[in-house]
Amino acid sequence: MIKKKSLVLLSIPFMVACEKKLPPIDPDVITERVKYDTDDPAIWVNPENPAESIVFGTDKNTDGAIYAFDLNGKVIEEKTIRGIKRPNNVDLRYGLKLNDSVTVDVLAFTERERGMLRLFSVPDMNPLDGGGYPVFTEETVPDFKSPMGVSLYKSNPEGIIYAIVGRKSGPDDNYLHQYKFQADSTGVKAVLVRKFGKFSGKKEIEAIAVDDENGHVYYSDEGECIRKYGADPSAGNDELACFGGNYFKEDIEGIAIAKNTDGSGYIIVSDQQKGQFNIFSRKENIFVKAVNLNTVETDGCDVVTIPLNDVFSEGLFVAMNDDGTFYFYDYAKLQLD
After folding, report:
1. Where are the alpha helices (DSSP H) in the chain?
2. Which neighbouring-strand residues pair with 75?
3. Taking every annotated instance into account, which residue ranges of this chain make up the domain BPP (predicted)?
4. Is 265 left (phi over 0), alpha (psi -120 to 50) or beta?
5. Rounded Cα gap, residues 270 and 118, in angstroms
6. Contacting residues for 9 by C-beta, under 8 A, at least 6 apart
7. What is the pTM of this model?
8. Which of 103, 165, 235, 309 is most buried, judging by how many CB atoms fall within 10 Å of its CB?
9. What is the DSSP string of 93-135?
10. Which helix (H) or strand (E) holds 150?
């Protein structure tokens, strides 16, 4: 009884502290507004000129789009993909091998109302998917077939690129499906290679992020915890961790992985209803701190930790805001290192 009472008393100051709003940090750039509803960003770093890097972001509607923004937050119309039926989440990777002599960077996103995973080359924005890859095809319940979250994983040393896809709702196990991209003379195929991942059933699973170098996939079981698995199909389907849930007010949302050159870094996760971000260590998944970036109801976020230009001299963190914009921050503003 004494131990139980002590735990209760210790939890009260922690809960009170969690309700205090931290000092706000303003963005360096706010993008132009999309037509409907921003949701999730992905950052492509231009290898020839980082100052000409592109931030892609979903506009979630039946008449939706994948917007392209320059580092000033201006829409790049010729790189924007329109006519997408409710795009949800987006991710990218570098160097998909099309044949012995050609590799391309690729952008993947979910097209929920068509039940499709989409794949385009970057920066020329050519479709590689023949109109889309159907996902969760064996399901009969509509929400079980509707893709939401997606993250790409590039394995080492093989260099194979996979897509890990979540959905609007699903079973309490095998919630995620993993697809392998295979290129041949007829184009790029997406082959189902794995089903895995627990679901609490409390809310939704949307945000997914993969740490390629460490071989881990993280996803937000919104009302429960951040779940962690091996990213490679050969890693098996046992859950490695379920952490962080007690640091969030309500929904656990967007995930971004900030990588340092020495292998350290951070997992940055949106505490959606509190309007903050909770930050965990990349290696141990231990809570480090929370920051208030002055966003409202943030779903998706992304980060890179290399210099891009004078404004983003330490890297770039991007967060969705519920007014139809994305907020850009110099990574140094998060004061993590």
Report:
1. 2-18, 142-145
2. 69
3. 15-337
4. left
5. 25
6. none
7. 0.93
8. 165
9. EEEEE-SSS-EEEEEEEEEGGGTEEEEEEETT--B-STT-EE-
10. strand 147-154
For residue 43, give the amino acid letter: I
Q: Tell me the C-alpha to C-alpha distance, in Å, between residue 148 and each of 63, 260, 292, 315.
A: 16, 29, 26, 27
At 155-172, the pLDDT tens digits run 988 899 999 999 999 999
Task: Give pLDDT tens digits for 257-295.
Answer: 999 989 899 999 999 999 999 999 999 999 999 999 999
- Structure-token pair, residue 298: 């943030």
The bridge status of strand 252-259 relative to strand 147-154 is unpaired
Please tell me what DSSP assigns to residue 33: P
Neighbour tally for 158: CB within 10 Å = 8
**What gap in Å lies between CA 118 and CA 37, rounded to an integer?**
19
Other beta carbons less than 10 A from residue 240's beta carbon: 15
Asked if residue 157 has a cis previous peptide bond (ω within 30° of 0), the answer is yes
* Ordered DSSP codes for 171-190: -SS--EEEEEEEEETTEEEE
Nearest by Cα to 197 from 181, 214, 216, 174 = 174
Phi, psi (5° rounding) for residue 12? -65, -50
Nearest-CA neighbor of 104 among 113, 114, 94, 112?
A: 94
* Burial of residue 257 (number of CB atoms within 10 Å: 0-12, 13-18, 19+): buried
Residue whose token pair is 């945000």:
207
Separation between Cα atoms, residue 8 and residue 261, nearest integer Å: 41
Determine the Cα–Cα distance for residues 180 and 177; give it in Å rounded to an integer. Answer: 10
